[in-house]
Amino acid sequence: MRRPQRATILPLPILLVAALAQAQSDPWATLDAVRDSLVAAGPTQAAFSQTYVPAGFSSGETESGTMALSLPDCLRWDYRKPYAKTFLLCGEVAHYWNAEDRAGRRYTIDREEEPGLDLLLLGVEELKTRYRATQKRAANGRVEIELVPRRRVETIAAASLLVDPAADRLVGLSYRDREGNATRFAISDYRRLSGDSTFDPPRGVRFQEQ
Q1: Average pLDDT in the 179-198 region?
Q2: I want to staple 162 with a disulfide (CB 3.0 to 4.6 A). Which of 14, 33, 124, 172 is the partner?
Q3: In sequence order, what DSSP letters do the residues of 33-73 get, joined into one string?
């Protein structure tokens, strides 16, 4: 007896599940979704903690503060006391200042050459030319994307991005430079900003051109 209907309809959901699993395991598709979501959200702020571990040490110093993004061009880090300082980058122009001293520096930066900045600001297609990527499952439904430079001349030796796919947000970033120094960021509490004024250098600060 022929059983055409059941035999023909079973492969379809199997193929759909397989296709979905393949899409979910594609690190570049994951990063594309995160970047598109952040661009669509507009100016966004999040809390962060940063730990720097020098080569040869098992632990290091941790700082914290707030991070603001306005992709594709602007990134701002506000560090709290005891080492209060602010770093602002829009396009190729960077500002660095200490609000208490009312003094700072302004200089041009190549974000493709600065460790970590390319991971946050460069588009996915550009990152593909710089890194090989693999993706694996992490705790709490998150995914970890490991990046290895395609060329040894890159400043970063290895990097890892932790993504919350349910929210399409980056929640962790870590990288190790060629000297063995490691930097780790934990990112949380994303919220929208009401405008773009966060990305304007403050008035009243004396910026020295570098």
Answers
A1: 91
A2: 172
A3: HHHHHHHHH-SEEEEEEEEEE-TT-S--EEEEEEEEEETTT
